[in-house]
Amino acid sequence: MTYDAGAVERRRILSRTRSVTIVGASNNPARPSYFVATYLLSSSKYEVNFVNPRLDELLGRPVYPSLADVPGETDLVSVFRKHDDLPGVAEEVVEAGARTLWLQLGLWHEPVADLAKEAGLDVVMNRCVKIEHARFAGGLHLAGFNTGVISSRRQSAP
């Protein structure tokens, strides 16, 4: 079984996504989850929700204690938790009926990926949802990064 979602697959996932729920959202501006949250709120069309049992509000939005408390449909779940927490988080993601489990940079857990794939979810590991969105929306081109996307046209946002 392959665990690495290629660029075409990641773009397909981001294009169909309507909402992103950040599990492990932090109110510390030095944390990656905070930066990703500010980017998604300012530069994407996604409905963004936050999960952290220790926060009530983040960036003017409510923070929910668990995935089960997030209102509406759960689509893509971006996880910023430590490796040992991933099996429990994956079970919550499956129970919430999400379509995609997205493990952020540095997170790779094959048993968790197997669990999610068996439940019918798409799985992306060791990738940043902010970086991938910017790659396909053309934002990284402007900064001079090689995005692997060759085109003379500016990409529309996924």
UniProtKB/TrEMBL annotation:
Pfam families: CoA_binding_2. It comes from the Bacteria. Gene3D superfamilies: NAD(P)-binding Rossmann-like Domain (3.40.50.720). InterPro entries: CoA-bd (IPR003781), NAD(P)-bd_dom_sf (IPR036291). Residues 13-107 form the CoA-binding domain. This is CoA-binding domain-containing protein. It comes from Amycolatopsis japonica.
